[in-house]
Design goal:
The structure is a homotrimer. Chain A is an alpha+beta fold. Chain A is built from 6 helices and 18 strands. Chain A has a 7-stranded antiparallel beta sheet with strand order 12-18-17-16-15-14-13. Chain A has a 4-stranded antiparallel beta sheet with strand order 2-3-4-9, with no helix packed on it. Chains in contact: A-B, A-C, B-C. Chains A and C meet through helix 2 and helix 4 of A and loops of C.
């Protein structure tokens, strides 16, 4: 169950080249392509002629031509032309609101009339020269909700990510969960510790001594339906942590967008926006590679967890304080689903 | 849904060697083997002893011996012998009418009493020294009906087969569909065009100038349950097309036999019988290789179409004039299925 | 359907190293690990916190630590600790009676209160210097019952295992089936024959002339739920067969333990315990390799048989005299399943 009247990340801009891209999102077969002036469009991946996959077709003059018999559809799902055919009476296919913004392509799989691009979240690091960003995409065989849980409880770093970002102090520090508007925030601070390897590297990059003791913080911020942005960083110990003078801290945002494919699989767009050495593209590559390897460690755990949820269906789970962020996030998602179902349908409105 | 009281191509003769061949046809697990004097037999692929697959067994003195415990079945599905056992009372398994003819092995999966070998279609090119034939077999994950549709509307050549047999003139020429007896014929003629690469090669082979303008024709002929033979060729422009003097034309038959495996998969026997340079076996190989590559382009399209038919179940499709051949072919198949279901069963006959 | 209140082989001791082992047994997801002093424990492979697979975790101080968030479970399925959590109220997970004995780890998947280690079968060759043992494990996609059938009717050796242990005399010699207590015994004796290759090798190893004629025997002994031990050997012809003077015979036990994974797949622990040249470890390796190759021949046959049982569901099978052992074994298993279902539940006892 996923909310439909909301924006999800559909793909990254580079995934749509001169060829269309077929992708299943929220159970819907969708084709994305670039129409006139490169503007992205999203349609049902279904040719109204014989049901061929439009994603196997090609883009012609800003429209999408089916690769089977040449029916051309425009970006609104209306048939434009077909050799030797009059297409006026052809049934339309559904188009989806879609926007390219902040380094992602966003899609609204639900009721198009309700789609407001102004509600696409702002990503402050995009187009800001003080920040650098690198990321990737994983296709994961588990519900997107298990990934939300994962990211809202970073305790797992001490177990799953030993030797990189994990350290013992993580699970010895309490977490707090609170709301900031619609955002669920789970935070953890570790005081007067030695920085783990990743942050030692960042401190050196920032010109700081990587051996001095630091305060470390993690603020996981969930926004429905599938965004978890995590403020992470270290500051010289006792200087105010996340609020320390910029010269005495180094920080970044772990970027996570989860988009359901089916009930038991999702697209995971991950990355890191960093506020240090933004011009060092070799560093960007190196972080991307490291983060990709670290996040890959989660895959086996999450896919086995998904398998177990089905094998042990109905089994009660615990909801501890460390789970509070995930629990609240899930409740928000549940409420959205319920609210959507309660919407009057056109027929009922009468 | 497939008609059962009809002949399908089960395999090519070379597929049954000294070992039996297991193949699922119309949902039935069948074993084919060569009995006495090389005569092909077809049985349920199920040993009546413990249910082993007879196709894993071996042929002994014209009978089929189960490879598990040595039960020997004859070509009628009757137990013949088993070491230290009296097999008289053993239950029979079903045998299927089967005939080797015209370069194929034909099977009748339905009521054996109704099987008349005289109704196996004649293939005029077989055993005719003026013709050469080469072909292959693809196992495709879509309904055989989608392949019938594909072959009855060659418009797709302009899109799927660009650069080989496709050319723009195809979808700029109107098609006609008519019946010839039980045969559905969809035809297209292109007048005064430049021959595409394949036909230029054929023209040279025939001793014609490959640069002169030609008339090209395509006559797709569907015969139930799964045969589409396509008359194809070119003649010097204005000389009568398909009826031109043999010295001024070059032609061939695209051979297609589709045999259902399940509702959503089929065996596709494809090939080309040509009426030029019949003795050039290197040419036969070259055409087979080229045709195999071209027909392979259809696979991705058709398998995605099958997937879409299921994902968008219930969605209405168009039936344009170019689809008339496929629509009529499907109607014939539907009628056959309905007629078979209306047959009185033995019990009802009483 | 499998009996649950009984001992099955779960794994071999070497499969549980310092890492836990996840294995599905009788439809249950189970994790096996070595706790204090190397003692094996078996739990549900399900962390009560969030449902992660405990088999991806690690062993800490004799307990099993979940690899996701660090919950530590003891060998009884009770939560022991978790960083910054009070675990007293955490729900327990199920533990399974498990014993390491005679070279195997045995598990009781049913009602733990009924588990009596004294009922684990004795394997006389283990820890006996006069015997040597070598074996392996296959994961097979068929019901364990088809493997029981296979081993209780060695007629198949004449067909499936031609050239190794098969010989024509096998299916020319009658079999007898009788009960010895709870054991089903199917036996076959072949008199005055030439030994097949394997036994010629064994005769040479024993210092016997491998060309003299012999009496050969096979006694397949089924004990519920999944054990078939087969006495096999040859003796100089006319010396009493299995009862001949030890100097004039050579013998071994084919060891087979079948453990259901699902209704249509099982774990097959195979091996051979031999009573000749026990100190020759190269011979052990050689036999293991040969037996592994021979038993591998059964896989294709049995997996196709499983497929056929489903494709031809409801089809009646034969039960010949050679099948009597398998038939009786299956009846015992059926009776066990029925008896377990008739057990009063705790609620019913009231």
């Amino acid at each position: 169950m996923f909310p439909m009247n909301t924006w999800y990340v559909a793909c990254t801009p580079d995934e749509i080249t001169d060829k269309p891209l077929g992708r299943k999102i929220c159970g819907l077969q969708i084709v994305l392509y670039r129409g006139r002036e490169g503007k992205v469009a999203a349609l049902e991946d279904f040719c109204p002629h014989r049901g061929a996959a439009l994603s196997l077709g090609s883009v012609v003059d800003g429209n999408l031509m089916c690769g089977y018999h040449g029916l051309v559809m425009d970006c609104h799902g209306k048939a434009v032309s077909m050799p030797m055919q009059r297409v006026n009476g052809f049934p339309c296919i559904r188009s989806y609101p879609v926007e390219e913004r902040h380094g992602y392509v966003w899609i609204w799989p639900g009721d198009a009339a309700k789609a407001d691009p102004a509600t696409i979240p702002d990503l402050p690091w995009s187009n800001n020269p003080e920040w650098a960003f690198g990321g990737g995409l994983y296709h994961i065989q588990c519900s997107y909700r298990l990934m939300v849980d994962n990211l809202m409880d970073l305790t797992h770093e001490a177990y799953v990510h030993v030797g990189s970002i994990g350290q013992n102090e993580i699970d010895q520090s309490p977490v707090k969960t609170h709301m900031e508007g619609n955002q669920v925030v789970t935070s953890r601070e570790m005081h007067d510790i030695v920085a783990p390897p990743f942050w030692q590297m960042a401190m050196r990059a920032q010109g700081l001594d990587d051996q001095v003791r630091v305060d470390r913080w993690q603020y996981s911020r969930f926004t429905a339906p599938g965004s978890v942005l995590i403020d992470v960083g270290v500051a010289l110990a006792g200087q105010g942590g996340i609020n320390a003078d910029p010269a005495q801290r180094v920080y970044a945002i772990v970027v996570d967008f989860m988009t359901p494919e089916t009930e038991t699989s999702h697209w995971y767009f991950w990355g890191m926006a960093r506020h240090f050495k933004p011009d060092d593209s070799a560093l960007t590559d190196s972080i991307r590679q490291g983060q990709g390897a670290i996040f890959n460690q989660d895959l086996a755990v999450l896919e086995a967890q998904q398998h177990n949820r089905e094998a042990f269906e109905g089994r009660r789970l615990l909801a501890l304080n460390i789970d509070a962020g995930g629990v609240r996030a899930n409740r928000i998602l549940d409420d959205m689903v319920v609210a959507e179902r309660a919407l009057p349908t056109e027929a009922a409105v009468g």
